[in-house]
Amino acid sequence: MGVKLIKREGNTFKEKIYLPAIFNGLKTTFSHFIRNLKDTSNIKTICYPEEQPKDITSNYRGVHRLTKREDGTIRCVACFMCATACPAECIFIEAKEREDGIDEKMPSVFTIDLLECVFCGLCVEACPCDAIRMDTGIFSFSATCREDFLLDKNRLLCNEPMKEGKNNG
Amino acid sequence: MSSVLLVVVSVNVILALLFSIGAAPIMVWLERRVAGFIQDRLGPNRCNIKGIRLGGLIQSFADMLKLVFKEDFRSSTIRERFLFSLSPVIVFVCAFLAFMVVPFADNLVLFDEVYVMQAVPVELGVLWFLAFAGLGVYGIMIGGWASNNKYSLLGSIRSSAQMISYEAAMALSLVSVLVTYGSLNLVDAVNFQAQLIFGFIPAWGVLIQPVATIIFIITAFAEANRTPFDIAEGESEIVGGFHTEYSAMRFGLFFVGEYVAMSTSSAFIVTLFFGGYHLPWLDTQVLKGNMPTVLAVAMVVIPLISFIFMRWVYKNNIWLDKNDARNKESIWLLKILLFKNVVILSLLGYALFVGIGENVTNILTCILQVVTFAIKLLLVNFFFIWVRWTLPRFRYDQLQTLGWKVLMPLAIANIFITATFIVVMGV
Q1: Which residue of B has its CA nearest to A22?
Q2: I need a surface site. Which of A125, B82, B89, B280 has the fewest CB within 10 A?
Q3: How many CB pairs under 8 A join A and B?
Q4: Do B391 and A25 touch (CB under 8 A)?
């Protein structure tokens, strides 16, 4: 274990008068300024909402949706796993008996409060039937009153999965 | 008072208003857009009046309207109400008055009478600037104290500490310049810079007094409360500093005052060190003697600049939504610019064709010099903004060390060398 001598910077005359370093800094900022002034398309800022973000990947956790079986009926069996797993307690389910013979139970009410939801994705992981997913790619949702943020069963069923390279936002 | 004098005086006052207060919204806009570009952002670009955005300039007017119509809130804890209201006025008026002595053009000769192109034609020039620039800090100090708020008080203490550290160096750096020019009058100072050294180098202050130039520019940053010396505000440390308690137009006056102070400092840097209203190598006599040539050159240069500008606008002024009114802006700009060019070119062509009398020559020279001054002012203002987005803030003991231990000895040494040189050379 030898002693390592670290060279102290900033003691030469050139460094002490600051001006060369200041001019270097000015040169850097000016090169950025000129490059962006010549061609504003170099700037990475996107003009939302006219321009939508293109970097929303397939594993992005957007607004939830309820999946359907091949015959178009709801896949959820109202097992309450998602509601139990939910740390924000934003999923409200009421179960009823399923009468079309496909399964025994289905939700009569399935509501997600988006204002409570923390978008952690635990509900998706908890689901044994792959009935709830967050792959819609919807990152922006707005409404004029609190009630509109309560997504009921029909609205959750209507949400579509994200198309390749395009979001539903 | 003759009517010509009245016209010249009002033109001067309007020019002074235009360059100081009128420049404030433009400076705010420039500040934001330049900051954006330097940091690879866009800056404000959405605000528009029927699709006309002018690159985001409309945002400044929107902000100004907001400041005027906002609720003028004053906390009930403020006891010194009169001083509280007075301090923004002091800051604003001082910055504004300091601008008034800047000459915009050489003395104008009309009908064999000489008119000084200054809003306040005083001989004191530099002293006037030092006086009002020094007074401006009282506004900040009083405002911070009257606010009855710890942050504000800290801000005003910092600003007084700042003032005692730069003011001495600033005045001393000016002394050597004054010794060189041999006059307090700014018109004389500018005309001195119109000469040539060795017949080909313009005798600008920056070339014959480089040390004084650097000291003055550094202290001018401190005087205008701009980064790297904006320690009176220090928003990351003491909220807003002296203007924490201010809102609406009271704050607006501080805000505009800051930009006017910046313009004032720029104007003095231009006047004292960068040849003022003179184009390099073309002093007033040369311009007057060769007016037809100058006009012919202008007839080529103005359309050329317009063409390059419009090409740039068409390349960069794009709005993604095709149906938006903002997409029609480029066409509007093109029409306005074409109209302006046609008017200017036809006037110039007419003047060249008919031939120009002495008065017209003098007025054209004057206009050219005002334009030169405006362009130089804009460039130095740009430098202020550019530095702001490059350098971090100094601590205020660092500023005091810089002011007292570095800049003041340098300034004194500079006076000594300049004076020796002048005495020895007997200039």
Answers
A1: B391
A2: B82
A3: 49
A4: yes
B322 phi and psi angles, rounded to 5 deg: -65, -30
Contacts of B171 (CB under 8 A, 6+ apart): B130
Among candidates B38, B41, B319 on the partner chain, residue whose Cβ is nearest the Cβ of A29 = B38
Asked if B389 has any chain A CB less than 8 Å from its own CB, the reply is yes
Which residues of A fall within a CB distance of 8 Å from B37?
A: 32-33, 36-37, 43
| Cα distance between residue B126 and residue B123, in whole Å | 9
> CA nearest A155: which of A46, A80, A65?
A65
Quote the tokens at residue B214. 């650097």
Chain B nearest C-alpha distance from A47 (Å)? 8
Task: Answer yes or no: is A81 within a domain.
Answer: yes
Q: Report yes or no: A19 at the B interface, CB cutoff 8 Å.
A: yes
Report cis status (omega within 30 of 0) of the bond before B280.
no
For residue A122, pLDDT over 90 is answered with yes
Q: ipTM strictly over 0.90?
A: no
Residue with tokens 């207060």: B21
Distance CA B176, CA B189 (A): 12
Residue B307: CB atoms within 10 A of its CB come to 12
List chain B residues with CB under 8 Å of A36.
36-38, 40
Q: Is B317 left (phi over 0), alpha (psi -120 to 50) or beta?
A: beta
Contacts of A39 in chain B (CB under 8 A): 315-316
Put simply, the answer to whether A29 touches B42 (Cβ < 8 Å) is: no
Mean pLDDT for B151-168 is 84
**A130, part of any domain:** yes
- H helix count then E strand count, chain B: 16, 4
Cβ atoms of A83 and A105 closer than 8 Å: no
The pair phi, psi for residue A151, each rounded to 5°, is: -85, 120
A contacts of B324 (beta carbons < 8 Å): 50
- Give me the pLDDT at residue A70, please: 87
* Number of domains, chain A: 1
What's the alpha-carbon Rg for chain A, to the nearest Å?
27
Copy the structure tokens of residue B239: 């909220």
- The CA distance from B273 to B177, in Å, is 9
A55 within a domain of the structure (yes/no): no
pLDDT value for A169: 47
- The Cα of A13 is separated from the nearest Cα of chain B by a number of Å equal to 13
- pLDDT surpassing 50 at residue A130: yes
Instruction: Quote the CA–CA distance of A45 and B37 in Å, as a whole number.
Output: 11
Best of B38, B379, B383, B395 to disrupt the A interface (most A CBs within 10 Å) is: B38
Instruction: Say if A164 falls within a structural domain.
Output: no
> Tens digits of per-residue pLDDT, A71-121?
888 889 989 999 999 999 999 999 999 888 888 888 999 999 999 999 999
A32 contact residues in B (CB cutoff 8 A) = 37-40
B336, pLDDT greater than 50: yes
CATH classification at residue A151:
3.30.70.3270
Q: Is the dihedral of CA B308, B310, B311, B316 positive or negative?
A: positive
b/e code B347-358 from CB counts within 10 Å (16+ = b): ebeebeeeebee
Mark yes or no for CB contact A29/B321 under 8 Å: no
**Where in the sequence is the domain holding A152, given as residue range(s)?**
65-158
Our measurement of the distance from residue A124's CA atom to the centroid of its chain's CA atoms, rounded to an integer in Å, reads 14
